[in-house]
């Protein structure tokens, strides 16, 4: 997996991203052109028109992110609006297509694990990259993202990490923070508590579950375009989440877009009980967490997902296990059962 090192101002960060991953960013745009047309019946000129409202809001409310997006556009020699579209891909179609995944937080006496499988379409795997960001104003960040997108899954040098679960609930709101920019905001935060409070106060532009953790705490911010609710750790220091709403949201109807989501939710909770019982007071190791992400029980409705079969088009493209006390992470490209490459993210 390619690593892009980004330094300096927001524009310089974006420029380094755009220049260093020029062909990958261009492929990301091509991929989403096809996806919007196929899945949402939206041709690219229409998508560009929809994105204009979001562009204005981002420029006005989050100018540093706008500047970074401009840098990516200039570096990759693509129109600015196309990079805006990549960064609001969750919002564009009102949540009509999103990536699936299973995420978890587990704090023990020795470790603070944050982990997930990221499930999406195989074609986009070639456009995944590592961003190593050293900005003028915030903590150093290391994340796995899709080329052209400024926020996704990873951790910072302070031991704050973030994971994402897509949720399909109707509606979007261009006055709120786009989901992927919200992930970036978390990675710029000094603590899980500060990050969660910020997202709850600002609100997200579309539905999602963002799992935020640091060495001591974790919060699951479950959001729709109108609501935000916070999941606290249970008595075992755990949070588990798949791709449906776990909390009540007034006036919101969950579309239950992935039929396997409740099954994966139950399975990850069952595995936690099994691993908790087998490991005793010491709790699980990183290898144990990796094994949980490699679970195939109930296939094809399993945590480790395959592209073929009745579930549709997505498969597990990478898994990540962060250990936030040591401020490090292990990323495995490909399905956990068929690892193509292993990358370590350490500070």
From TrEMBL:
<feature type="domain" description="Peptidase C45 hydrolase">
    <location>
        <begin position="108"/>
        <end position="336"/>
    </location>
</feature>
<dbReference type="InterPro" id="IPR005079">
    <property type="entry name" value="Peptidase_C45_hydrolase"/>
</dbReference>
<protein>
    <recommendedName>
        <fullName>Peptidase C45 hydrolase domain-containing protein</fullName>
    </recommendedName>
</protein>
<dbReference type="Pfam" id="PF03417">
    <property type="entry name" value="AAT"/>
</dbReference>
<dbReference type="InterPro" id="IPR047801">
    <property type="entry name" value="Peptidase_C45"/>
</dbReference>
<dbReference type="InterPro" id="IPR047794">
    <property type="entry name" value="C45_proenzyme-like"/>
</dbReference>
